[in-house]
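Work Package 3 (structural annotation) set out to generate three-dimensional models for the target panel prioritized at the project kickoff. During this period the team completed the workflow that converts sequence records into discrete structure tokens, so that structures can be stored uniformly alongside our sequence database. As a representative example, we reproduce one entry of 436 residues exactly as it appears in the project archive.
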Amino acid sequence: MNRLSALVFTLTFIFLSGNAWADELAEVKKTGSGGEIEELKARIEALEKKAQDTEVVDELGHKLHPIHSIYGLKINGGVTVTAQGVNRIKGAHTRGAAAISADLALESQVGKDGRAVVVLDFQNGAGLRNLPAFFTSPNGNPTGPNNDIESFNNDGVHVAQAYYEHSFAPSLVMSVGQLDITGYFDANAFANNERKQFLANTFVNNPAIEFGGSGNFYGPGVRVTYWPVEKIDITLGAFEGNGDYVDAFDNPFLMGELNFKLEPMGKTGNYRVYYWNRQGRTQNDLVNTANPGDTGLIKAENKGFGVSIDQKVTETVGVWFRAGEQRKQVARFDRHLSLGASINGAAFGRHDDAIGLGVGTSYIGKVYKDYKKSQAANFKGSAETYMEAYYSFAVGEAAENSGFHITPDIQYVTNPGGDSNAGNLFIYGVRLQAFF
């Protein structure tokens, strides 16, 4: 009976499709050759518009990888596999380690001017262990070798983001819900994405920002972006400091950013300046402050400012720069500087490949340096310097934000955690990235 039903359905579909095609062909013949051309042009324009409507953009309108649409629900995601090793460390038994993560974003239109977004995240594998301690921000974010490692490490699926976004006008957008704070602030075209650019934490976001939210910077809050003119955008955000929805208004994280979109010599660039303020932290975060023995730092204010610049120099070469400062009374390091370059593979006939080079330095704060000396008389404080280079190889027809990419990566760290006695580290690895 099932086979008979399937056969009847198939014949009916063919019959109806044939009638529809015949009617359409008859209509084309009536219009003549000129009408046929106009109709074809109209169809092409409709297809182009449909393709544009299914492009993914981030919160500030930057294009991401392609998106699929099912009955109005837009879906996109990716799978990331990383494997890293480290040179032999004196007095420690350290081997290589692997990790895997996956993200899935679901988006649906809400009315004419709104959209609802849910982002699911999976991550398993703790990455390299038994390394000398890196600098750590008061919120627990380290300047470690793999920013793709989340604070959770299990086989469960986590709701990373869930929010509603509304466009009040073409120049005014607001998002509210559980947000990724780093998705709205401190962006950079060449150093801001661990899935296709640098792996080290220090080159993905400014480590001299005590971001609010959870250990992965997810948490409840609201952000507003306003474009007073085409070349300037202003973003303001207020978030729950700890990301746990408990005492949500007691320790807020506030941030504001001004972005100038300039085109010196006809080459695009973004010049971002920002200020942030955090009113406190949890008891568990005390261990990551400048003096873990000072309980007053639980309620201490931390604040700072910074810049993030990306500028194309030629059609294939871009440069980037970051700088930031925070309170040395609260944080282990009070200043950070990093810069680098990005080279598009078109320079050597590989249009979808990319090379990235970066160097960054985090300067130890005086309070933390004094604390470390009080714990170990032979402690020698110094700046932590990080260097990284990667080559992103696009497999087959993969474009920058689609398909499959293989990325060998090397990192070199001097004075990890600001300790000149810790030695230097050479970290090597590879990232496999599939966008879907």
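The chain has one domain: 72-435.
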